[in-house]
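Bumping with the actual sequence this time:
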Amino acid sequence: MVGTTILIGSLLAASHSAFAETRDNPSQQAFDNKVVKRIDVDRIYENVSYLAETIGPRVAGTAKEDQTVEYIANQFKQYGFNNVEIQPFKIVSSYNRPTTASFSVNGTSYQVTAFGYSQNTPSGGMSSELVYVGLGSEAEVAGKDVSRKIALVHRGGGIPFATKMSNAKNAGASGVIIINDVAGLPTSNLAADESNLPTLFMTKAEGDALVSTLGQTALTGTMRIEGAKFTMATSYNVIATKKPQANNDTKQIIMVGAHHDSVAVGTGASDNASGTSVLLELARVLANTPTDTEIRFITFGAEERGLLGSYHYTKQLSKDEINRTVAMFNMDMVGSKNAGEFAMFTVDGKPNTVTTLGNSAGTRLYEAISYNQVGRSDHQPFTEVGIPAAVFSYAPLEPEYHSPNDKIELISKEKLLKTAQVLGAAIYQAARPDTPALERSKVAPIPIEAKFDGDLHL
């Protein structure tokens, strides 16, 4: 990725292991003051209060999310963003499990159960050749002809059920049978997606025997799933784009994200009105700040339903946009008084451009920021398409997480301000117009690679 290589190269070339001089050097903090001194924590808190208290729980696909999306879009427009996009996508709002699930081979019936969020087979069932694809990895499935056939897959290998199904689906399979790796058939689910294949769960004993037979002769299986019902709704992403200076454009992109939806219990003050409100304040401050880099501010819908908004957004990105995106800063739960220390998390547990920028800014303004490995927030889909990404949060999480007690009374203005200042400084370090004079001056920040903290956990 060309753009990523340019930014990473410049950061690594200047990386610094000791940071005492950074904190003690007022000239370097003067650089950050162009952004951090303009951050208004009262505005952030007011937005948290409006989202959490005035609107309340913002469950994806409901009227409350519609109200949230309208509010966020209007805020962006008030800040001067003329190109605000509201991006709709379909989600499953409810699902009735199948009433019928069966599987047979040459007249012999097998014990199976349907996965939650499995799609139905055609009425009366579906018969096709069976193809064994091992653990269902992308490479294993690609090595077999499964087009219009039923893929027989073993559980395990660290590959989620939904990924096994998706790999078979992408290779053209018409159905999937997953063989358990232990005794029994527990109730299990795929991701909530109407486009899932008909998918059954099979016992270990019968599945292992079937695979052994399949190794000696071709077999045709009949699977039948009926009664599954999907009820659909619409969720939204909201995107405000800040264009770079016309005469000073690196063609690079930085993305700043936070999910605006919440769970149904509580008011979602910390999770994630806090992250959304910090994002809005950064958009306000940076809206008229000169940059040589495009900045996209994105609030995602349906994060609580499985990162559906961020997955939808990344699927819409072109290869060119992915190649030009040098960093994705994600914020999730950044305001609770009862949470731990400020921290960063990457999906693969490795440092990247975002952790270096974040730690550099944190070191200049407060203290060094460590990182560890965690997915399950909106930075994950960006990582999966090759964009350097990290989530900023406070660890360990507060005990009120996903509970009725996630309320405005537990929001810390100090944590909101710290998050906004650190991310504002980090983003500005990467997006501000580069000039040779500035690079040679003592004002230019020193990149400092973040340290991995094995004891850091959400």
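The tokens above came from a reply further down the thread. The longest strand covers residues 229-242.
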